[in-house]
Structure formats: C-alpha cells, structure tokens
Amino acid sequence: MKKNFILSVLMVVGGMTASAQTYLNPNAPVEERVKDALGRMTTHEKIKLLHAQSKFTSAGVPRLGIRQLNMDDGPHGVREELEWNTWSPARWTNDSIVAFPSLTCLASTWNRDLSQAYGNAVSEEFAFRGKDIMLGPGVNIQRTPLNGRAFEYMGEDPFLAGEMVVPYIQSAQKNGVACCLKHFVLNDQETDRFGVNVNISERAMNEIYLAPFKRAVEKANVWTIMGSYNMWKGVHCCHNDELLNGILKKDWGWDGALVSDWGGTTNTMEAAMGGLDIEMGTYTDGKTKESDFGYDDYYLGNAFEKLIKEGKVPMSVLDEKASRVLRTIFRTAMNPQKVIGNQCSEAHYDVCRQIGEEGIVLLKNEKNILPLDIAKYKKYSNILVVGENATRSLTQGGGSSELKTLHDDSPLDALKRRYETMIDYAQGYYSGRAMYDHVDKLDPVKQAELKAEALEKAKSCDLIIFIGGLNKNTRQDCENGDRESYDLPYGQNELIAELAKIQKNIVVVTFGGNPYAMPWLKDVAGVVHCWYLGSEAGKSLVNVLSGVVNPSGKLPVTFAQKYEDYPYVKFGAEAYPGVNKQVYYKEDIFVGYRHFATNNVKPLFPFGYGLSYTTFAYGKPTVEKTGDAVTVSVTVTNTGKVAGKEVAQVYVTYPQMEQARPVKELKAFAKTPLLDPGESETLRMTIPMDDLAVYDEEGRGWDIAEGMYTFSVGTNVNDIKGKADVQIDM
Ligand code: GLC
C-alpha cells in the first residue's frame, strides 16, 4: 500500500515537473518556452548555441532535448548536402531538388501572389530536407550591372524589392522554415567583398539600401538575417554595433537571430558587443585552409565564454543572444506547426514554370515576329537555334546558390517538343566550365569552328532563335567576383551581328542576372530576356515564345545603352569597385532610374519596361487622401486581340524641397489578373503616408513634406499614361 502511495506521489510530482518543463510544451507561447529553457541552461550550453558545430548547423542543448538548427543555401532551392565539416559534396543520392527561378526573375513578375507561391514551395523543399533556416532571399540593391550576385537579388528599386520579398518570407515562415534575409547590408558588389568599406550618406543608406530589409522586418517579421562581409563605418557588418544593435534591434525592434556570413566574423569583443548571435563558417569559409581549428575555437566559443566568466562581458549580453537563438529554434525546429514538406512535386514544378513565364521580359517584337504560334511557324521550314544557353545547365555554378536538380528542362529540348523536326541546332560559341573562382582558358580555334558552323547553317534556315547571354561561370553571374565588362561574353555580339546579316528573321533570347549592351539591337527582330528560369526553363520559355503564355514581365533594373551611363561611373574607381578597399556611393540616392529619369539619360530599356502580345489602355488615374494613406485608382483595359496581364506602376513626384529628389520614385504597383480582349480592371493602390516619408539628413530622421504631390501612373517609368495631384498637409 505504502509503496503504491509513494509511487503515485512521485508520479504526480514527476508529472508536475514535466508540465513545468514549459520549453518542451509545444502549445506554450514561444516567449515562455524561451524563458523556461534559458533558466535551465548552463553558461557553456548558452555559448554552444552561438556558433557553428558543423558547416551548416549550430548546436541545440542535447541535455535538455533542444534541437540543433539545420541551415542551408540558398534563395532558389535547397543546396545539395555537403560533408559535415567541409565544402565537399556529401554525395547523397536523395538530395536532388527543384531549382526555382532566380530572385531577379521573381521581381520581374511584379506579382506578389507568385512571390507567396515561391516562398511556400521552396520552403516545403527545405522542410522536407530537414532544414530549419534557408539562407535567403537576398535584397541587396543592384547599383552596378557588374555585380556577380545580382541574379540572387531583386533589382535596383528598394520599394519593389521590399514588396516582392515580403510574401516569399511570410509563406516560407508559415511553414515553420526561417528565412535568412541577406546580406545585411551594402553587399552590393563581389569585388573585395570580404573587406571593402562602404562610404555612404545617411540618406542613401536609409532610403535605398536599408529600406528592403526594413520592409521585410516590419511586414514579414523575418526570423533571421545574415550579416554581410563588407564594412560600414569601418566595422564589419556581421558585428556592427550601430547597424545591428542600434538600427536593426533597437530602432526596428527586431527579435530574430543575426547570423554571420560564412567567415564574416573577425574578433571576439566585436562579435560579443556588436549584435552577432550565431557565428558560422569561421576559418571554414574558403578564405583559409581547413585546419584543426575546432568549433569551440570560434570567436563566440571559448574566447567569449572566458570574457563572460571574467565578468568582462555581462551575462545579460549572453542571455540576450541565447534567447534569440532559442526563439529561432522554437519557431522552426521545435515548432509543432512546421510542415513535413515535399520534394520535386508537380506543384513545385508548376510554381517554377509559372514564375518563369511571368518573369520573362519581351523587350523587342518587330513585325510581330513573336509569338511563334502555329499560324506563323508553319510559314517557316527550318528554325535554327544557336547558342550555348539553349542546352547549358544554368542551375549549376554561381557559387553558394548553385543547385543539384532532379531534372532541368532545357530550351532546346522544349523547342524540339513544340516545333519537332523544324528545329536545327548550332552551339555557336562555348564558355568553359561553371567553376567557382576558376575561369577556363578558351580555345580560339574551337570558338571559330563553332561560329563557322552556326553561320553556315544560318544560310539555309528561315528563322533564327539565338539563345545566349550570361551564365554562372566565374566573372559572370557568380559569387566572389564581378563581371569585367558590360558586354555579352564569348564573342556573342559579333556572332549575333553576323547571323543577323544572313537572316533578318532573328529573335535573341538571353539569360542572365544583369543588364548588358546590345550593339546589334537594331539588326534583330525580337529580344526576350529570361533572367534564370530554373528547372522548367524550357517549358517557361517556349510557352512564351509560342504564345501559350502572353509575356507580362517588367524590368526590375535599368538597361543602359552603354556602361558609362550608369550614375556612379563618372565618379571613377572610388565609386566602384573602390580604391584601397574604400568605396564611395557618390551617386547617393540616384541609383538606377532615379538617375536616368532625373537627368534625362535615355536608357536602352527603362525600369518597369516589358512588352506584351496585346495592348492596354489606361483610364485617367484618380487619387484621394484618406486618413494616413493616399489611394491611387486607375482602370486598365485590354485593347488587343489576346488575353494578357499588365503591371500598372505608380511613381511619386515630391513637392519642391531643399534636398534634391529624383523626379520619380516607385511607391505602388499592381498586376491585373489575366484580362480578355476588351476586359477592364480597376486597380486601387494604397500608399501609406509613412511610405512617402523622406530621410532628412540634417534631422537624421524621417519627414513627410507638405505640399503638392504628383502621382504618375504608367506602364514603365518613362511611359506615363496619366497623372493626378494631391495636396498633403500634415
Ligand atoms: C557564402 C555567401 C552566403 C552563403 C554562405 C553559405 O559566402 O556569401 O550568401 O549563404 O556563404 O554558403
């Protein structure tokens, strides 16, 4: 009897203890789980949370049953599994995935719903692979068309980048997978990325470069952010007190965990006091050889623990960091709502294809050479496809965003499926291997032979589809190096010009993350730019070329006629790529179209530009100020013969002010649903007053100017269909 009594008492106590283990209660609020877990941890266990325990994981608390954090690249899909401690592939046989289109392609859709679909699909693949943090998306600003990683980002305008990244983050995190928004901040070039110090005005910093990150914090509550390698005000951004503790955590009230870029941490005291929460990739970042340097040797490892034990850093600093990491663990790894996910499902391929189809931009379509629908292509007896990108894998290479895919549908395969025997192919040029930090020496004899073969075949065809552009090779669209020229590489310009002389029915299709020069533009009938389309590249491209899908993509960057037209170039090397690792953003807020439109520099193709197979008419826009917002309305009508989607863009012109402002700044946009011929849609776009605030350099704060504002509605920044004014008095 007595024994049973004691047993039942122990069970009750045990039960109370168990239920008192709030951190293990999946239904308890995250903050209570954090607090309870922290109170049970030793100092050493708190330290272990703050740094890597392998290439892509950081520790949990094994003794308490708190899970580790599994991280992985990248913004376009889940990277292949690497070995525990090295950059070498682990050679798994079940980690082939879907490569989704590049984020510049997503931005080019201007479609928030597709951004939501993207975040949902890609995070399902991360979840299925057991990952808790996906190392992406990226929203660095495309200030130079030479940036090797621009393809991973969302263009030159902070509002477009911010608006298009928010749905992606919201839907990914709804699945219990944390996004890791990168690279915070000013990682806008790859040249000298590990040590360049960016000199920039407070106004440009706030209005342009911080803005998309701030939008993601305020509207999507992104759970982790990756610090960038470069410096700001002479301090590395992975542990920059003013940037991380001041702006991100205090001013913006961000409660997530700041993750270093791999190898971005440089000293213990700065890492301790400068806002870093999880140190990754130190001494295993490829900057130095692998060594017997252990994970406890990390700056936030033993060295930090020593400072805590000596009282040189208060325990509160450690508790603050550990709380942020625990919060991330309970939001992801130990989140009962986290999805199982799936890999390579039809649904994922559909999302991939749709984003590609809506991200493709039709830049030129003379004599309606496109679409190549049955009424047209039956006229042609022989369609010649020329160019390496018709067959080359563009999902491999590029650096940390490279992917191992289950299958990639190439443009040539898709063209052959659609147009069958009419398709002939000539490679035309070659580019060597897509190797990280290695450029193959190309054989001029082989190049000449490939070119000669293409020119010979061109003589007997009646339509040419050239498929080229950039690729993921080093010094093209690839991490750790920038492009060395604004021109297309591998002799493509000469090849296109000579092909156009032989056959004037020529459509140029390009892939790439950046604008480039088109000296042959007047000699070709059609131009289509695709960014990178991922695993369904062939289907997306051929659906647009054939007219199955009417293109609706709009440029998220300005294509300049020539490199020298970009605003920073006139300031010399100091403005890019910098001198002695000091770079000065001398164009200030006049990035991209803000420069071109304000200074009447005619671009090759303006920001927001993209043609359709149909036409649209705009009604007169109206604007009304209601409470703390301005609403712009406009009716768009499909006046053509085929169904299509249109993106209406709203640019604001501020009242005259002391500080120079761009003549136009994007403040709203909306994409119509698919409109049938004759169908109209009235778009209502609301602009919160806060979005109209400008950064006052002197006052070091945001200000809403009083006066007459003009809202211009257009189909691109230079093609305005109507304007409306509204007086704003605060
Ligand atoms: C790289 C990149 C970063 C990536 C990380 C892990 O150096 O800068 O974007 O997520 O290391 O591969």
What does this structure look like?
This protein has 730 residues and is an alpha/beta fold. The protein contains 19 helices and 26 strands. Helix 2 crosses helix 12, helix 5 (112-128) packs across helix 6 (158-174) and helix 13 (346-359) crosses helix 18 (537-545). The protein is globular, with a radius of gyration of 27 Å. The protein starts with a helix and ends with a strand. It binds alpha-D-glucopyranose.
- Biggest sheet record: 6 strands, mixed
The tally of strands reads: 26
Give the proportion of residues in helices.
Answer: 25-40%
Alpha carbon gyration radius: 27 Å
Distance between the termini: 79 Å
Secondary-structure content class: alpha/beta
Outline the low-pLDDT stretches. 14-18
Spatial order of the strands forming the largest sheet: 1-2-3-4-6-9
**Quick check: average pLDDT?**
95
Bound molecules: alpha-D-glucopyranose
- Total of DSSP H or I helical runs spanning 4+ residues: 19
Strand composition percent: 15-25%
